[in-house]
Structure formats: C-alpha cells, structure tokens
Write a structure and sequence with these properties.
The chain is 74% helix and 0% strand. It is mainly alpha-helical and 245 residues long. It has one domain. Helix 3 packs antiparallel against helix 4 and helix 7 runs parallel beside helix 9.
C-alpha cells in the first residue's frame, strides 16, 4: 500500500507537474499536452515572475517556438534571482551550524543543476521537433522555480523549530520504494542513452545524489520523499524522451 501511495503521488506530480504558464497558455493546443506544471504551482500562482511569463507566452509576437523559449528563459532568470535573494536572506537569519548546512545544500544544488543542464542537452540532442525544444526549456526552468519556492518557504518559517531529521532510508519504506523506482528508471534511461552520452548521465546522477545527501539533514521524511519523487519524475520523463522524433 505504501508503494502504491508513493507512485500515485509521483504520478500526480508529473500530471500536475511542470510549466504552469505553458499549461495555462500554450497548453494542449500548442504543445499537444506534453508539458506539465510544478508541484508548487498553487503556492506561487500569483507570483510576478509567473504572471510575466504568462503574459509573455500570450503575446502574438512570441508565439514561435523561439519566442516561447525566450519567455521561459526570462522566467528562469527571474527565478534564479529569487533563489539568490531568498538564500541570502535565509543565511542572515540562521545560527552558524544551521547556516553551514544550508551552504552545503546550496552548493550541492548548484553543482547538480550544472550537471543536469549537460544531461538535458545530451538527451534532447537525440530528439527532433519543436515540442522537445519547449520541453527542454521547461525542464531548465522548473527546478530553479522549485528551489526558489523551497527557500522562500524555509525563510518564512525560519523562526520555528527545525524539522525532525529523517531516519535512514533503509528504515523508511517510502524512501526505499522511492529509491527503487528511481534506480529502475535510471537503468532504463542509461540503456537508451547513446553510449558516448552515458558518462554525462552518470555524472548528473552522482551530483544529484550528493545534493540529496547534503539536503537530508535539513528536511523531514516527507521533504526527502519530495526531493526523491521529483527526481523519479525527471528521470522517467527523460527515459521516455530520449531518442524520440
């Protein structure tokens, strides 16, 4: 039952998943329903960055593939600035020990994002069609948006008690099942990647694993599942994308 519950949650994440503005404005008509929205869409639905992207995507002069990509790139830059702002504010409010943990988490996240960009480039280089150009831009945008929302949420609750640290993954059935699914989709993606690109996948997964390790002391068990569940959805999506025409 726990396994079914977790997978249902991941499936909802993917269906509700990425590109809020794309889903609202480009939608199924423009993209064939291939893009999803973020797990935190409801949290920041009225955020000025999202509103600006929706307006940009709705403009007639931005209706081309490159125009839509530009709208998402502009939003990604805006969310990157939001990440930086929330992170600096958070550090200023934390005691030294907690600050060091967040510094390690943020450094690991940045390293993981750099490795992920190379992985996305390798996967989408095997595809053809404007839908995949938009999908790649979406997958570049949403993790930055999600990180900004996480940091904002932590900043808003920084005066409260820290979350209870998770048990070891092997002692948490949800975590074990999540990692099982992640490893399963990872093997599928690895087998479908061109041999020359497989080291890129290995590096990206190692960088993500380091990010998970660095972030685990800062979240509770549900927060850890959120991190792993997002990764499951990403790797599954890439495994279904690689090599498509």
């Amino acid at each position: 039952m726990r396994r079914v519950t977790f997978l249902a949650g991941v499936d909802r994440w993917r269906r509700g998943g990425r590109a809020l503005a794309v889903a609202l404005l480009a939608g199924a008509a423009a993209l064939g329903g291939t893009l999803s929205s973020t797990a935190h869409a409801e949290v920041a639905a009225a955020d000025p960055i999202d509103a600006s992207m929706r307006a940009c995507l709705a403009r007639a002069d931005m209706s081309t593939t490159m125009g839509q990509v530009q709208c998402m790139d502009n939003a990604r830059i805006g969310w990157k600035a939001a990440v930086d702002s929330a992170y600096q504010q958070l550090l200023s409010k934390l005691p030294p020990a907690r600050r060091r943990l967040w510094q390690k988490s943020q450094s690991s996240w940045l390293t993981s994002r750099d490795a992920e960009q190379q992985l996305l480039a390798a996967v989408f280089a095997t595809t053809r069609g404007s839908t995949y150009v938009l999908s790649e831009a979406d997958m570049q945008l949403q993790p930055v948006r999600d990180r900004a929302l996480v940091l904002r949420s932590v900043l808003a609750s920084v005066s409260g008690p820290p979350p209870r640290r998770p048990r070891a993954c092997r002692a948490d059935a949800h975590c074990e099942h999540a990692m099982f699914d992640l490893n399963r989709y990872y093997r599928v993606l690895h087998s479908k990647m061109p041999p020359r690109s497989r080291p890129t996948l290995v590096r990206a997964q190692r960088a993500w694993s380091a990010y998970l390790t660095a972030s685990t002391p800062l979240v509770d068990e549900r927060g850890r599942i959120d991190i792993i569940g997002a990764r499951v959805a990403t790797i599954k999506r890439l495994s279904e994308t690689v090599g498509n025409d």
